[in-house]
Specification:
- The structure holds two protein chains of two kinds.
- Chain A is an alpha+beta fold.
- Chain A is built from 20 helices and 28 strands.
- A seven-stranded mixed sheet of chain A has the order 3-5-1-12-9-10-11, with helices on both faces.
- Chain A is globular, with a radius of gyration of 26 Å.
- The mean pLDDT of chain A is 97.
- Chain B is built from five helices and six strands, in the order E-E-E-H-E-E-E-H-H-H-H.
- Chain B has helices at residues 29-36, 92-99, 109-122, 128-134, 146-161, and strands at 3-4, 7-14, 17-23, 55-58, 61-64, 77-79.
- In chain B, strands 1, 2, 3, 4, 5 and 6 form a six-stranded mixed sheet that branches.
- Classes of the chains: A alpha+beta, B alpha+beta.
- The interface between A and B is large, with 56 and 55 residues.
């Protein structure tokens, strides 16, 4: 094969694509085991209280059912993740609506549903809290001593003295709502479990080893007695990062007691009402600038609603905190952040993971500060953009070359921003439908935060078969984003092979090493690099053993594998993550190299706002980003387009309506995600700037497109109408209020 | 439609083959296809006719099989995703989805492919607006639809070339 990257940058066909377009791909609900039962969950009707009694209606023949409560858990009653505070089944108390209390199984899923409705959980209610402000004010203390799961303090420079040099001070407060991941395949698991063989689960998930970690203490089993297998997964977006551990635990408890395989599939309503969503947030900004528009002080107070248990809130908070001051150079920064408890189901991972929340606030606020300085949003940002050698809020020096002005120029050219800004200003007065154009500039760090990747210490193997096929062994999951295809490209490229010779082993904890969770935009950049190193290690084993010369044909490679295996046995190369040189992170001060690399972006949104019906339409969307080298142009553009679509939903349509801690619009009928008729053309452009420590120069990409669209759209709404909206989603009701406020009555 | 123990016997032509099944009258066509006929390519995304993952062609009309009582499918001719390719040879729409990134996680893909086929059958040279409206009953959370539009355009261009 050619020496100069024949595969990196090429749109090879999606590895499992044929199975997907023919309907042959097998998702968890497509699997049927002999003698299988169906499982169901009985959940708390109250937000907070003590469990007084569980009543089983006598009309149901309960002896035909398998019934499990907290008492029957063989090991520790918790879903192990960061803290062990979340029970697998509530025992004495409930802390949020829909908390699991009783599990049922039966062979007939229709009778099962009748039985589920015939269990009544009697609760002695306790006062509950549902907002960030009530939680911070300790209206009730519902978790720990002060309702605070985690807090961070980031300090740069000396902000207390910096205010004196500020000529203009601008304050603002911003809020974002919850968001449902809404993968089209609902969550589900199948378990086989008994004391002799241990526990095996198959299901829809992002992180097989997270599920493994949760099942081991729950069943008090040795690690090798627990096996977790990912089935084809119909979307995740973070929503299948932590909650699958809960469902796997429930299915396995029912299987353990019944002695039969148990399938547990959530229907859409249960998935929406009971599983995690994006954390709602509230951010306060106080910003000091000089008259000529240079940032001198940024004080940011960022708070997120974590729901009833800690789950992943500390790390969501971490990412949100680190991204809160954005891609700007400011000598004096203080960011205080807190993740707090409320009596709603725990909020969790969702693409962007805290960053979309804090970036919404920042990029709305930057437009406000620009206005206060009498500068255009673009001129103000250009005066403060971080440059190569500059220092972020966490005191990370940016060594890579970063060129945000170039991204902005490109995005403005593609969107015709300057001319449209002018034209809309001319044409809007008197028009019922007003047009606006706005943008956001931002970055997203790839991989686990700080020392996270070092702690994960991910492992990948690449092995060869006697037929000269190459197999990648990793726990990283294909969830639609293209893991299988990108790993194939990377391994085939490293070995100079046809991609058809590369196989990706199914993620199965009994067969693949722990390459870490499939989250945090880390799969291509971090795990892909390990795939590359392991593949090169395989080649090295062959050349060092003199089975293969440095230059070889595909046939010679295959013969060499056969010879090696015949003479020496297994041919496998295993590598473990080591950080790139010069990476330092201080967990105490929260300072240092927060991420190995950042993707940088400028997104432009154009909107129409109907001032009579209060409808908002995004007419055009331009997404320009630098993500290192693009490994697969079709998959990469697909990631950006899909992320932008989700973020347009986040900005305008996707409104979780809460009542007493419960989502009341838990249906696709009234929780509205964008359809093909709602979206603008999403125009994606990549600037390439290879990252030396990513495979083929790639950086992470998956979460980036979730960050920018919401503030770009709300900035465009302000450009169209003059209304300064500080919260998302901007439903017609929110817009109506904002526009009516702007126009004093009588006018 | 003879009855037995409250169940009814229905006959459907599915992907060209005759199939009989004994079902409850209000059983969903989706469950009959998946559980009785083991055609699991038809997916359940919401169970309320919003997402289109369960879409099949019934007498050449695109229907959400989660909303259709099986009794109404008696005597009908049904195409599911399993009946779209000819053996190993993919349909032009399937090929286009494969080549143009129209499928990501794949869960909406069976319904989306059938919706695209239905669109092209009724409107062989669709405008972008036709495509957007023609697919608006099928939700995709991965792609933002752009690559699906490209796939549909590629499919009808391929057909035109032939």
């Amino acid at each position: 094969m050619h020496a100069d990257s024949p595969l990196i940058g090429q749109p090879i066909p999606r590895k499992e694509g044929r199975d997907k377009v023919t309907g042959r791909a097998r998702y968890v609900d497509d699997l049927v085991f002999p003698a299988m039962l169906h499982g169901a969950t009985v959940r708390s009707p109250a937000a907070r209280g003590r469990i007084r009694a569980i009543h089983f209606d006598e009309t149901i023949p309960w002896n035909e059912f398998t019934v499990v409560t907290a008492k029957e858990i063989p090991g520790e009653n918790c879903i192990a993740l960061i803290l062990h505070d979340q029970p697998c089944l509530a025992a004495d108390a409930v802390n949020h609506p829909e908390e699991p209390v009783v599990l049922l199984a039966h062979a007939d899923k229709y009778l099962l549903e009748e039985a589920r409705r015939a269990v009544r959980i009697e609760i002695e209610p306790l006062p509950a809290i549902f907002t960030i402000e009530d939680s911070l004010a300790k209206k009730e203390v519902i978790w720990g001593e002060d309702n605070v799961f985690k807090k961070f303090l980031v300090e740069k420079g000396d902000i207390d003295s910096a205010w004196t040099s500020a000529e203009i001070i601008v304050e603002g407060e911003y809020a974002t709502g919850a968001q449902e991941q809404l993968y089209i395949e609902p969550n589900g698991m199948i378990a086989v479990a008994n004391p002799r063989d241990g526990v095996t689960v198959w299901g829809s998930m992002q992180c097989p080893y997270y599920v493994h970690k949760a099942l081991v203490p729950l069943f008090a089993l040795p690690k090798e007695k627990v096996r977790v297998v990912q089935t084809e997964t119909g979307g995740g977006f973070g929503g299948k990062e932590e909650y699958p551990s809960m469902i796997a635990a429930h299915a396995a408890l029912l299987a353990w007691k019944s002695g039969k395989p148990v399938k547990m599939i959530y229907d859409r309503a249960e998935d929406m009402v009971a599983t995690t969503k994006r954390h709602p947030s509230r951010t306060r900004h106080r910003t000091g600038v000089t008259r000529d528009g240079k940032l001198v002080a940024m004080e940011i107070d960022f708070a997120i609603d974590g729901g009833a248990y800690c789950t992943l809130s500390p790390v969501v908070l971490s990412r949100g905190t680190i991204h809160a001051a954005g891609p700007y150079e400011c000598p004096n920064v203080r960011i205080r952040s807190r993740a707090v408890a409320t009596n709603t189901p725990p909020h969790g991972a969702f693409r962007g993971f805290g960053a979309p929340q804090s970036i919404f606030a920042l990029e709305r606020h930057m437009d406000k500060v620009a206005q206060a300085c009498g500068l255009s949003p673009e001129e103000f940002r250009a005066r403060n953009f971080i440059r190569t050698g500059g220092t972020l809020a966490v005191s990370q020096i940016i060594h890579e070359s970063v060129d945000l002005p170039r991204l902005m120029e490109r995005a403005f050219a593609l969107s015709d921003y300057p001319a449209k800004r002018e034209r809309f200003a001319r044409e809007n007065p008197g028009a019922r439908v007003k047009k606006g154009i706005g943008f956001a500039s931002f970055m997203h760090g790839a991989g686990f935060t700080g020392s996270g990747e070092e702690f994960l210490a991910s492992v990948v193997s690449v092995e060869a078969t006697a037929e000269g096929r190459v197999r990648v062994l990793a726990a990283s999951t294909e969830i639609g984003q293209g893991t299988n295809t990108v790993f194939t490209q990377i391994a085939a490229e490293a070995l100079g092979l046809d991609p058809a010779l590369v196989e990706i082993a199914p993620p199965d904890t009994a067969a693949v090493p722990n390459s870490g969770p499939t989250v945090a935009s880390r799969t291509t950049m971090i795990v892909g690099k390990l795939v590359q190193s392991a593949a090169l290690g395989l080649k090295q084993a062959l050349t060092a053993g003199e089975f293969l010369r440095e230059e070889y044909s595909q046939e010679e490679f295959q013969r060499a594998c056969a010879d090696y295996i015949a003479q020496r046995g297994v041919l496998r190369s295993t590598v473990q993550y080591t950080p790139p040189p010069g990476i330092h992170w201080d967990d105490e001060k929260y300072q240092g190299d927060a991420y190995g690399a950042y993707a940088w972006a400028v997104y432009v949104a154009e909107v129409s706002v109907d001032t009579a019906t209060f409808e908002i339409r995004v007419d055009d969307f331009v997404a320009v980003q630098e993500v290192g080298r693009v490994i697969h142009p079709v998959l990469a553009a697909g990631q950006i387009e899909g992320g932008v679509a989700q973020a347009i939903g986040y900005a305008l349509y996707e409104n979780v309506v809460w009542h007493e801690g419960r989502m009341v619009n838990a249906q696709m009928t009234n929780y509205i995600m964008p359809t093909s008729a709602d979206l603008p053309p999403i125009r994606v452009h990549f600037e390439e700037n290879p990252y030396p420590f990513g495979p083929g120069g790639a950086k992470g990409i998956g979460e980036l497109p979730m960050d920018g669209p919401a503030p770009a759209i709300v900035n465009a709404i302000e450009n169209a109408t003059g209304a300064s909206i500080t919260q998302i989603p901007v439903t017609p009701e929110v817009l109506m209020e904002a526009l009516l406020e702007k126009v004093p009555s009588g006018e | 439609m003879p009855k037995k123990n409250g169940k009814i016997k229905i006959t459907m032509r599915v992907n060209g083959g005759e199939h009989c099944a004994e079902v409850w009258p209000m059983a969903r066509l989706l469950d009959v296809l998946r559980e009785e006929l083991h055609l699991t390519g038809t997916k359940e995304g919401c169970g309320e006719g919003e997402c289109g993952a369960c879409a099949v062609l019934l007498d050449s009309e695109l229907v959400n099989s989660c909303l259709l009582p099986a009794s109404q499918a008696d005597g009908a001719s049904i195409t599911t995703i399993e009946g779209v390719a000819h053996g190993e040879e993919l349909h032009a729409v399937q090929r286009a989805f494969l080549e143009h990134g129209g499928a990501q996680c794949g869960i909406c893909t069976p319904g989306m492919v059938l919706a695209a086929m239905n669109l092209l059958a009724k409107c062989p040279n669709p405008t972008e607006a036709d495509i957007r409206m023609g697919l608006a009953g099928n939700l995709c959370r991965c792609t933002g639809y752009m690559k699906i539009f490209e796939s549909v355009i590629a499919a009808y261009k391929q057909k035109g070339d032939r």
